[in-house]
Design goal:
With about 475 residues, this protein is α/β, with parallel strands linked by helices. The protein has three domains: about 220 residues, 3-Layer(bba) Sandwich (FAD/NAD(P)-binding domain); about 110 residues, FAD/NAD(P)-binding domain (3-Layer(bba) Sandwich); about 110 residues, 2-Layer Sandwich (Enolase-like, domain 1), CATH 3.30.390. Helix content is about 30%, strand content about 25%. It is built from 14 helices and 21 strands. A hairpin with a 5-residue loop joins β12 and β13. The longest helix has 25 residues. It is globular and about 70 Å long. The structure holds 1,4-dihydronicotinamide adenine dinucleotide (NAI). 1,4-dihydronicotinamide adenine dinucleotide binds next to α6 and β17. The site of 1,4-dihydronicotinamide adenine dinucleotide has 23 residues, from α6 and β17.
Amino acid sequence: MAKHFDVVVIGGGPGGYIAAIRAAQLGMSVACVDAWQNAKGGPALGGTCTNVGCIPSKAMLQSSEHFEHVQHGLAEHGVEVKGVKLNLAQMLGRKDTVVKQNNDGIQYLFKKNKVTFLHGRASFVNADAGAYEIAISAPANDSVTGKHIIVATGSNPRTFPDLPFDEQLILSNTGALDIASVPKKLGVIGAGVIGLEMGSVWRRLGAEVTILEALPTFLGAADESVASEAHKLFVKQGLAIELGVKIGTIKTGKGVHVEYTNASGAAQVLEVDKLIVSIGRVPNTDGLHADAVGLKLDDRGFIAVDEHCKTNLPNVWAVGDVVRGPMLAHKAEEEGVAVAERIAGQHGHVNFDTIPWVIYTSPEIAWVGKTEQQLKASGVAYKAGSFPFMANGRARALGDTSGLVKFLADAHTDEILGVHIVGPMASELISEAVVAMEFRASAEDIARICHAHPTLSEATKEAALAVDKRALNF
Ligand code: NAI
């Protein structure tokens, strides 16, 4: 007889494993099924984020930044370094170690919280007498039943039509993190988050990188002033970014041949050694057998859910990339916690208005809330204030003065509506803005809070002061 659990979580990425831990903390019996296999065929918990996303990309971003910094950023500090050499195998090996530490960490957390881990691919079999039967195949061959099911199966990279990923010449995020020698010329299709992060890594390591983007505007989801500042800085660093292109035929041979038309409609050819295709991701419902139980998908293939991640079936929930909303690990985690709490009869809730966005380029880009163009489009009366890192003492001491902090606040109430940062440690600085918005703070609240000197966070305070046209250091 199949073992029964209060909750069976399908998928061990940030949405799934966090949901499993929270449900176990709340006293439920929990199983988490995850199919990811490491190079040796063993389990590799953590999903895309841990294995081929957030974690390894940050390891490579850090390592490649050290490589660039030691060559170009130390002389002005009076530190002279000669004979700098890249040991790419060591760099990639370190990245793999970081990934493994995270995989093992999640397994440890499962043991600690008494979550049963099952290694294999889960699919719905049927729903009977208040429980769902879930079959688990390869490498496991098992089945379990669960009163509640949380689907957290994540997403897969979108392929270019008729151009499957071979991870040798045509690379997804997976292959982009594992190129064995630095390509002389690297092409990227899509100037989104992955394109910019991976393009930055390989440019720093010595590749000539060209990014081709279909949209005529750069980083359309970001605030316009932040996007234009970032664009200027990336181009200065040597990333060739072509906007408004239309990709035509792509052929592979020894390298990759990309035909496209540029923004003025002229035919162009890009010859590269390898091509990263980062044009978004699609929800992963492969092999889930959603139809076996009548689980409803929406017209874009996402599992259809309400604001509380409830599907059309009783006691079946779905979180993370496989449902609507931004494909961000931290959004998935919040949904996982909220669902576990709702199953336990609590009132778990995700505030989608305060989910931060971060792009880990150098400088980093981070934002929360509305952009200026969104406020204009919706006719909201607002005030804006910004402050450049150039005028921040800590940034000058660091030798990293690029970028700015920008606040947008309601013209009548002064409530913060959005905060946008491009600059050093933007990923860390944005937390203050998220907390402020969660507590519905005004720009003046931040302006009146004592910020330690000298810190980068003073730029946040100054931008809040600038909303009322009273920045002190600019
Ligand atoms: P994305 O949605 O960020 O960017 C895709 C880009 O490709 C867009 O600018 C789009 O206009 C462009 N594009 C689409 N079709 C195209 C075509 N035919 N020709 C040229 N350009 C085209 O998607 P990306 O970068 O693939 O990332 C996937 C997901 O992973 C995103 O949802 C992202 O949020 C998430 N992610 C988040 C990270 C972070 O939080 N730092 C890091 C990496 C990924």
